[in-house]
Amino acid sequence: MKGLADLLLLGNPLLYQAAKPVEQAELNLVKTWVSDLHNTMEEIRARYHFGRGIAAPQLGIMKRLIYINIHKPMVMINPELTYLSPELFDVWDDCMCFPNLLVKVKRHRSLTIQFKDENWNDQTLDAANDLSELIQHEYDHLQGILCTMRAIDEKSFGWRK
Fold it and tell me: Bridge-partner residues for 68, per DSSP?
């Protein structure tokens, strides 16, 4: 079982690599991966008091898998962004891979994402504001992009209080 000790930290080369699609034949592994993502997120919440979502590459699982748990768990397998609004907003982004650092980035106000759920059914989700920002952050992890790479400028960094 993976957990906080397995979380990749800023600078780990795997964080900058694009993840590979989950194959339908790997569906039996998804439950284990989701359990590992859930456990890690719960440990982050207990220690740092934040955490709404996590992407598989953050644990070195180089697969296109996102786990979000705000009010209820949601699993996104092989997500694809199909719409990004032209309207942007600024947000102080945080990341479990560097839990005390905040990074000011621009995110799209709303989006549409298509993905497979944990039962391999096609899903489409429209998201706005906080959920849109979260999905973009986690989706970036699947592309090998960290919010530090999206900083608005060189002054867009701060420490969590």
Answer: 53, 74
CA–CA separation, 131 and 122 (whole Å): 19
Name, in order, each residue with C-beta under 8 angstroms of 83's C-beta and a sequence gap of 6 or more.
110, 111, 112
CA distances from 5 to 8, 26, 27, 104, 124 (A): 8, 25, 25, 27, 33
> What pLDDT digit, counting tens, does each position of 73-107 carry?
999 999 999 999 999 999 999 999 999 999 999 99
| Three-state DSSP state, 116 | strand
Going along the chain from its start, the domains and CATH numbers come out as: 4-159 (3.90.45.10)
Q: pLDDT tens, 118-155?
A: 999 999 999 999 999 999 999 999 999 999 999 999 99
**Residue in 8, 36, 5, 18 with CA at minimum distance from that of residue 144:** 18
Q: Which residues are catalytic?
A: 138
The fraction of the chain above a pLDDT of 70, given in percent, is 100
How far is Cα 135 from Cα 133, in angstroms, rounded to an integer?
6
